[in-house]
Amino acid sequence: MRRSKYLLPVLLLACLCGCGPDAGLPVRHSVALIVKSTDSEFFLSVFAGARAAATEYNLDLTITGPETEEDYETQNWMVYQAVEDGAEAIVFSAIGYEENAPAIDAAAAAGVQIVSIDSGVGSERVSTYIGTDNYAAGQMAARAALERMEGTLCVGIVNYNEGTANGQERVQGAMDALRESGRARIAAVITTLVDAPRAQTDTIALLLAHPEVNVLMAFNEPTSVGAARAVRTLDRGEDIFLVGFDSNVVTIDGLQDGCVDALIVQNPYAMGYLGVESAYRLLARQDDGLEPVVDTSTQVIDRNNLFTMDGQKALFAFEQPGTGQNN
Q1: Which entry of 10, 261, 294, 316 is 20 to 30 Å from 248 by CA?
Q2: 189 and 104 in a common domain
Q3: Do residues 301 and 315 make contact, with C-beta atoms less than 8 angstroms apart?
Q4: Does residue 322 lie in a domain region?
Q5: Are 44 and 92 contained in the same domain?
């Protein structure tokens, strides 16, 4: 049988028409990570995990956050902007549990998948929450002091933004554990800005007003930095047991020089990585078995385990086991 001289060109043309630049390639989904701020060590670690997951799953990732951790209105605008820009999923750390809920509900109603990390939001449209069990972390902070001190504890608490879920849950967990111990008295609870200099000023005022305080607790990175500086300024490192949260060069130095006694260290890298990975699973319809709540690891670091391998991994958590990264 004689073949037409036009058959081969026609077949090649057909193949080329079906092999455009995107043919056969996986869909590149768009994910927006919107957090409470962009300049803390905590969120820099979140970003590192998020970017690693975005690279692994071939995602188009944008990262935004307001200048302060009190500005929920800007966060809401960022949610609306992400939807307008075509984000298919939003990974969200809420400033205001109630205040951010309408924006998240609206994004979900527009077809956007919602993943919550670090701090929850009051929306039923969230597919999964990834972060610390904050109530348990607050209890951990209280026990860190109870197990390392004798006698009666007179406690000062430095908290932040009353509308943020994780801070309130941590304080509640700590206060419950302290009251249940039968040997602790809560002398003062203050709420300060999520800003280290302001937290320092407010903590100094607390300690001057309540010189009987022998335990101080601060519940996130900036307030912990401010509290550590306050203790150092007043030269009270020897008579105040300070429990802080998260990893920062100031508080790590404080563990060594004595103005900080324990840190409750979370796993922000895993929050970022698993948050973006979960967004991918939702978009790729691979979400069978996706847990509604994923508790990332939290541990106590003090002078006894500061320089151990586990302690160093917790404090400098940029490569985490179980997240597809190198150990």
Answers
A1: 294
A2: no
A3: yes
A4: no
A5: yes
Over 80: is that where the pLDDT of 14 sits? Answer: no
- 225 with 176, same domain: the answer is yes
Q: How many distinct structural domains can be found in the chain?
A: 2
**Do both 224 and 198 map to the same domain?**
yes
Based on the domain organization, do 189 and 92 belong to the same domain?
no
- pLDDT tens readout for residues 267-300: 999 999 999 999 999 999 998 889 999 999 899 9
User: b/e for 216-240, b at 16 or more Cβ within 10 A?
Assistant: bbbbbbbbbbbbbbbbbebebbeeb
What mean pLDDT, rounded, does the chain reach? 89
| pLDDT at position 81 | 98
Please name the amino acid found at residue 221. Answer: E
The pLDDT tens digits of the residues spanning 156-178 come to 999 998 788 999 999 999 999 99
The tokens describing 310, both together, are 């586990």
- CATH assignment at residue 95: 3.40.50.2300
Q: What is the Cα–Cα distance from 46 to 69, expressed in whole angstroms?
A: 15
Write out the two tokens for 110: 């527009």
Q: Which range of residues forms the domain containing residue 106?
A: 30-131+267-297
Residues 172 and 243 in one domain: yes
